[in-house]
Amino acid sequence: MTATTEQVALGKQKIVEDLNVLLTDSEEMLRLVAQLPGEGVDALRERLRAHVDTLRAALADAQIAAQRGYRSATLQTERYVRQNPWQALGIAAGAGFVLGLLVAR
Fold first, then answer.
1. How far is Cα 12 from Cα 22, in angstroms, rounded to an integer?
2. What is the CA radius of gyration of the chain?
3. Rounded to two decimals, what is the model's pTM?
4. What whole-number distance in Å separates Cα of residue 64 and Cα of residue 39?
5. Which chain regions cross the lipid bilayer (predicted)?
6. Residue whose C-alpha is closest to residue 62's, from 104, 23, 4, 103
7. pLDDT in tens, 14-39
8. How far lies 32's CA from each of 27, 41, 56, 99, in Å?
9. Pairwise CA distance, residues 16 & 34, whole Å
10. Residues 55, 56, 58, CA angle at the centre, nearest 5°?
11. How does pLDDT run across 36-95, given as a tens digit for each residue?
12. How far apart are CA 103 and CA 36, in angstroms?
């Protein structure tokens, strides 16, 4: 996996985590607002409910996209290793050697 691919994967993961936090906060605000009386608060409740629903949909879409990306990367990696076993072994050995050097420091 290239550095750019890793950054994209981490970026997608960060977006999903941020959406989870935002959804949790929005649901908490909705729970707190539900206890308040008044007409203006009713409009706020409806806006918060719509916001929470939109966040849920966005989070579900982001999770599905991330799962598809991970699945695709896994399949491509497996296909490459099956087609080029010696190259894959050399890459793995080289990566292990470099990581060993970095850890030994």
1. 15
2. 22
3. 0.49
4. 38
5. 86-104
6. 23
7. 777 777 787 787 777 777 777 777 76
8. 9, 11, 19, 50
9. 27
10. 60
11. 777 667 777 777 778 778 878 887 887 888 788 888 888 888 898 899 889 988 988 999
12. 56
In this structure, the chain runs to a length of 105
> Nearest 5 degrees, angle CA 36-CA 39-CA 31?
30
For residue 29, the SS3 value is helix
Token reading at 38: 């008044």
Beta carbons within 8 Å of 46's beta carbon, 6+ residues apart:
none
- Write out the two tokens for 75: 């399949």
Q: Are 52 and 30 in contact (CB under 8 A)?
A: yes
Crossing angle, helix 39-83 and helix 85-104, to 10 degrees? Answer: 120
Give the N- to C-terminal CA distance of the chain in Å, as an integer: 24
Q: Domain residues of the chain, as ranges?
A: 3-104
